Input
Amino acid sequence: MQPSLTMTANQADLLARHLFPDDGCEAVALLLCGRRAGADRHRLLVRRIVPIPYAECSERKPDLVTWPTRYVDALLEEASRHDLAIVKIHGHRGYDRFSETDDLSDRSLFPGIAALTENDIHGSAIMMDDGRVFGRLVCPDGEFLPFSHVAVIGDDLKFYRGSGAKAVEPFGQRIAQSFGAGTYRQLRELRIAVIGCSGTGSLVIEQLARNCVGVLILVDPDHIEPKNLNRIVNSRADHAAAAAPKVDVQAQAIAAMGLGTTVETYCADLFDPDVVRAIAECDVVFGCMDSVDGRHLLNKLATFYLLPYFDLGVKLEADGEGGVDQVCGTVHYIQPGGSSLLSRHVYTAEQVRAAGLYRTDRAAYKAQLGLGYIRGVAEDRPAVIQLNALIASLAINELLARLHPYRLDPNSEYAIHRISLSHGIYEHLEDGPACAALARHIGRGDVAPLLDWAELSETEKAA
Output
């Protein structure tokens, strides 16, 4: 199992302010964490921070802190009831490892927590005065299992990993020269989901693979058709004749590149619990789909599982007389705890409901549409490869800018990119207020039903 810890940038800032007070003495906090309990990857997701007041600590020195464990007692019932994890975190100045005192303390504290919560996934972490964070699970037998990485998700994307970084392969030299060897190694370690493998998605996949991303999770239920051949990269006439799954076509192309990217494919609908869980185990998500309910699900998933989410949209509106009225595209960067596609007015709650009904019960959708209870859903939005390629490249560069901030302006000013080729417009906008509808779901992780979404209830599905 590869355990990891993820928090938002706002949470990291709160911790830094508490753990490094002006008096120079150590401080401690507790993290109540949701979980993505995967078979191979176990993600701990910071849901709430409980700072231990300085005055409540019986001893505080530059290299020692003694604190009252009653603050743990106050979290045990909630952790047990909701299957949450407890992580202790304290600050170190310059000393980038756990001390012998830390080892003794953790071996004393965590077996009791595991017994009382009936869950042995709890941990300990250290924040350094330069912002780095590392940590470990503390097993009931007293053994330690290091976190594979700690992720901090905000305007910048920070992944703090342990030692043993891979060397830069020959095919990665130019990426390393452009963005630094550290960024290249981060790309090699990333697990990225791409939802939608058609016109825009295929171009995103192509660029991620050629940037040597470590693992790609590809999701799309559809198959290649003749109408796809002019815009899906790597598609061929024989794929259309055989109705090859879009995910398989992309996986075969990536394998042929020989750049070391591992691929997992899901020829399935996004509203499949297994697909949701697979995405939740990733580090980054790209959404390349038109459906409103699918985009809303990804936005909600990103909040529950603290994932950075890049949403791509393209639109080409023909005038019906051989001309074009509008050629435009957008890239939204969504971070957990920030604004959402809903609060940015990309769609409305009514449109989410209508899209869900269109997908699950076409007859009921048509009936309600005819009665005027809902507004229509766009069924087919044409796009062309040059517009798709422009928006896909913009999104990939947005990822790189957040892994390796290279812009003159801060990343906070680039939450939204909008381009209109027909009107000669390009603009970038900063993030808006936090989405009130999603704020309560930050870091919840695995719940039943998944994402609190009734359609993802596996009990109902089995029945």
